[in-house]
């Protein structure tokens, strides 16, 4: 290890509060790997929760490792093994590496981390001398197949219900890899793609669900200024969503919707408030919590400055908006997703233009400096007329909000286990043309527009609904660009057109071995209803 590497890690640690240091003697060392930068990783509440859970066990020492920053699309091969923050230990020293993967695009970073550590990437090339690789996260939980030839085990769903038996099984890695795999194969909710008794055609993997959120607190363990939520204590107040937006992976895979009690949230808040005054409330839709008004008032009475991850505007919680303004929040985020009422009905986004405009007026009244409007581009049945409606809605908001308005455009990517899982992804050229129209019109009117690349969204789309044939394409991609990815697919006898196209009703989907919260038949019915914009029918899991 170089002196510079040690210096950089020491600087990061020196700015943290809450870091856990444990002696390795008699304990199972687990490397908790986030295949992206420290800045993004420490913004992930899942990473904090896992770090806290494993270090709460006396027989485990858990240390963090992150990808090194690099320019987008280009991996700079490191000459030294990635080191953990806590003890500066090389990644290949650990018998278990647990990957927390938030986004499909981080699949490439996962491979880069293994290569930098000198660990064989393919599971077939690893033996007892190598770490066992386990992973989880929303994308992998929905469709683990693109990394099936790499990972030893994938957590399907939520880890808390199986955490103790999972960790007990991992302890066997100190004795024998085969024993550990055998023990893991008997745990529900674990997919072992390369372990013969658990081949995809032999076993269905049921998604795991934590029924009682109060039984497992989920909050920031470490506070640091070097993250998106600088020195903010994050608390999960709910999990899942009952709205049924047809495009939403989280909404369908984290069913049923569950809420943490106000008492439990306040108890976690009091602990965090010893070290910070900033509390971030996290859930799919913070304002959907049944007692959000009471919670907002009581947190302010504790002296907390409140931020939220997301809000609904149908209706908007005025006490929450007031609490956010009093806490110094300067930006209110609103996500209509689609510009026209017709298209919002297609995706089952139960928000009207009146809801959006009311929230805008409320933000203006309470002195917010900015509103951010989030829209998706390339949604099913979308036309140019819907883009005109999007522009009109943004202009209507700007007319009611005298300060800064920012429009954020995100290409739509169909995801597994949603009603749109069989639909073709809108071609990048089409989405680019529609984005350009919105940018051209709104910027002339003084509205800032930010957009994500449709070409990069195509890469995400292939990973979201691909199968294990993608593994070789991932391995062949050292410099990730849209053109390089297309070439890697071609070398594997694959194409964007095939992977992004319509999936036939009779086609067995790559993720068919995953038993989700909602039956496939229901997803198919919702897809059909989206074409007629019929109201959402009651779904299993509520």
Topology:
Blueprint: H1 3-14, E1 28-34, H2 38-41, H3 45-56, E2 60-66, E3 96-100, H4 106-117, E4 132-136, H5 138-142, E5 153-155, H6 163-171, H7 177-185, E6 190-191, E7 205-206, E8 233-236, E9 238-239, H8 249-253, E10 258-259, H9 262-272, E11 278-282, H10 292-301, E12 305-308, H11 318-326, E13 331-337, H12 341-346, H13 353-365, E14 370-377, H14 384-400, E15 404-411, H15 428-444, E16 448-451, H16 454-465, H17 470-475, H18 482-491, H19 496-500, E17 514-515, H20 520-530
Parallel strand pairs: 1-2, 1-3, 3-4, 4-5, 7-17, 8-11, 11-12, 13-14, 14-15, 15-16
Antiparallel strand pairs: 5-6, 9-10
Keyword list:
six-stranded mixed beta sheet, about 550 residues, Rossmann fold, alpha/beta, 20 helices, four-stranded parallel beta sheet
Q: In words, what does this structure look like?
A:
With 542 residues, the protein is α/β, with parallel strands linked by helices. The chain has a domain at 3-206: 3-Layer(aba) Sandwich (Rossmann fold), CATH 3.40.50. The chain contains 20 helices and 17 strands. The protein has helices spanning 3-14, 38-41, 45-56, 106-117, 138-142, 163-171, 177-185, 249-253, 262-272, 292-301, 318-326, 341-346, 353-365, 384-400, 428-444, 454-465, 470-475, 482-491, 496-500, 520-530; strands at residues 28-34, 60-66, 96-100, 132-136, 153-155, 190-191, 205-206, 233-236, 238-239, 258-259, 278-282, 305-308, 331-337, 370-377, 404-411, 448-451, 514-515. It has a six-stranded mixed β-sheet. A four-stranded parallel β-sheet has the order 13-14-15-16, with helices on one face. Strands 8-11-12 form a three-stranded parallel β-sheet. β4, α5 (138-142) and β5 (153-155) form a beta-alpha-beta unit. α6 runs antiparallel to α7 (177-185), α14 (384-400) packs parallel to α15 and α15 (428-444) packs across α16 (454-465). The longest helix has 17 residues, at 384-400. Residues 70-75 have low confidence and may be disordered.
């Amino acid at each position: 290890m170089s002196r510079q590497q040690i210096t950089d890690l020491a600087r990061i640690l020196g700015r943290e509060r809450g870091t856990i240091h444990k002696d390795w003697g008699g304990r199972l060392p687990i490397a908790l790997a986030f295949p992206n930068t420290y800045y993004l990783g420490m913004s992930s509440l899942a990473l904090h929760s896992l770090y806290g859970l494993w270090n709460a066990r006396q027989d485990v020492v858990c240390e963090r490792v992150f990808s090194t920053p690099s320019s987008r699309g280009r991996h700079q091969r490191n000459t030294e093994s990635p080191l953990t923050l806590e003890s500066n230990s090389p990644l290949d020293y650990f018998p278990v590496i647990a990957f927390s993967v938030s986004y499909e695009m981080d699949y490439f970073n996962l491979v880069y981390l293994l290569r930098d550590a000198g660990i064989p990437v393919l599971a077939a090339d690893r033996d007892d001398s190598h770490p066992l690789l386990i992973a989880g996260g929303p994308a992998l939980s929905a469709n683990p197949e693109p990394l099936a030839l790499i990972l030893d085990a994938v957590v399907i769903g939520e880890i808390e219900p199986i955490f103790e038996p999972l960790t007990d099984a991992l302890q066997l890695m100190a004795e024998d890899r085969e024993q550990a795999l055998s023990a893991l194969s008997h745990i529900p909710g674990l997919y072992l793609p390369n372990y013969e008794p658990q081949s995809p055609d032999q076993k269905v993997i049921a998604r795991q669900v934590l029924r009682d959120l109060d039984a497992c607190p989920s909050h920031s363990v470490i506070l640091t200024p070097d993250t998106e939520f600088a020195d903010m204590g994050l608390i999960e107040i709910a999990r899942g969503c009952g709205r049924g937006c047809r495009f939403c992976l989280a909404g369908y895979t984290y069913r049923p919707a569950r809420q943490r009690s106000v008492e439990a949230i306040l108890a976690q808040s009091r602990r965090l408030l010893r070290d910070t005054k900033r509390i971030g409330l996290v859930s799919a839709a913070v304002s959907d919590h049944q007692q959000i008004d009471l919670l907002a008032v009581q947190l302010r009475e504790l002296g907390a400055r409140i931020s939220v991850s997301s809000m609904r505007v149908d209706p908007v919680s005025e006490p929450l908006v007031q609490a956010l303004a009093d806490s110094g929040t300067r930006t209110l985020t609103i996500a209509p997703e689609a510009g026209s009422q017709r298209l919002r009905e297609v995706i089952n986004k139960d928000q009207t233009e009146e809801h959006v405009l009311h929230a805008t007026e409320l933000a203006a009244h309470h002195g917010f400096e900015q509103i951010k409007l989030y829209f998706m581009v390339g949604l099913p049945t979308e036309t140019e007329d819907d883009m005109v409606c999007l522009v009109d809605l943004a202009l209507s908001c700007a007319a009611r909000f005298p300060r800064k308005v920012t429009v954020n455009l995100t290409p739509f990517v169909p995801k597994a286990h949603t009603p749109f899982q069989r639909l073709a992804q809108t071609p990048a050229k089409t989405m680019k043309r529609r984005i350009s129209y919105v940018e051209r019109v709104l910027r002339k009117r003084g509205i800032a527009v930010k957009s994500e690349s449709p070409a990069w969204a195509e890469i995400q789309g292939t990973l979201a609904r691909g199968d294990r044939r993608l593994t070789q394409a991932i391995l062949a991609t050292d410099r990730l660009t849209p053109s390089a990815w297309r070439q890697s697919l071609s070398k594997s006898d694959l194409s964007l057109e095939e992977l992004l196209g319509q999936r036939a009703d009779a086609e067995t989907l790559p993720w068919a071995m995953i038993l989700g919260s909602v039956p496939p038949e229901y997803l198919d019915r919702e897809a059909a209803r989206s074409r007629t914009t019929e109201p959402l029918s009651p779904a299993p899991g509520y």
